[in-house]
Amino acid sequence: DAKTTQPNSMESNEEEPVHLPCNHSTISGTDYIHWYRQLPSQGPEYVIHGLTSNVNNRMASLAIAEDRKSSTLILHRATLRDAAVYYCILKVASNTGKLIFGQGTTLQVKP
Amino acid sequence: DAGITQSPRHKVTETGTPVTLRCHQTENHRYMYWYRQDPGHGLRLIHYSYGVKDTDKGEVSDGYSVSRSKTEDFLLTLESATSSQTSVYFCAISATDYGYTFGSGTRLTVV
Fold first, then answer.
1. What is the pLDDT of residues A87-111, one digit of tens each?
2. Choosing among A41, A55, A98, A106, which should be mutated to test the B contact, i.e. which has the most B CBs within 10 A?
3. Which is it for strands B106-110 and B73-78: parallel, antiparallel or unpaired?
4. Which of A16, B19, B30, B68 could disulfide-pair with B78, CB 3.0 to 4.6 Å?
5. pLDDT tens for residues B58-90?
6. What is the pLDDT of residues B8-46, one digit of tens each?
7. Pairing between strand B106-110 and B87-94?
8. B100 near B33, Cβ under 8 Å?
9. Are the C-beta atoms of B105 and B8 separated by less than 8 Å?
10. A25, A77, B111 from B43: Cα distances, Å
11. Within an 8 Å CB–CB cutoff, is residue B45 touching chain A?
């Protein structure tokens, strides 16, 4: 499974946008880019995923570089509830593709 | 999330005893997964299933076995619990190429 690299931690101010980067230079053509987050004392929660094009949903936006070697998760207006560990994961698009978690980025949101 | 439940939520057991954790889903998803989460290691995949009676090993499968006799239930068994298996265990479900839904976790303490 291809690996991802994320900063260990980031800080943001409440109500400001947050850009969480992820590098995945060894990504293959069949890898989907998935983002999950884990709030304290909870299980991980699906945020968004994409293959080549940018994606938007009610939680966030995913911007994927043209060469697919990096991506950015965008939270448009951070709230205190967005403080969590954010995981960027590559998942092979096959029946046996699995989520293999790295260490993620711990996002702190300041009021 | 409704649709996936883990039981028990908490368990304390003695070293050497067998323990079974249950994951139950009402989504009729084909894929089910067991992860463990420990400080400093993040989430690690133990076993997964891609259908009834079809299971495979993940990253940290030693000391664990699984069974899936029907679509809705995925059981994780610690055949002889050890202190190193003290952890938080998460079950997850998914449909092909969609996001995973995680359960709320089972906190297992082996004394």
1. 999 987 666 677 888 889 999 999 9
2. A98
3. unpaired
4. B19
5. 989 999 999 999 999 999 999 999 999 999 999
6. 999 999 999 999 999 999 999 999 999 999 987 789 999
7. antiparallel
8. yes
9. no
10. 22, 28, 22
11. yes
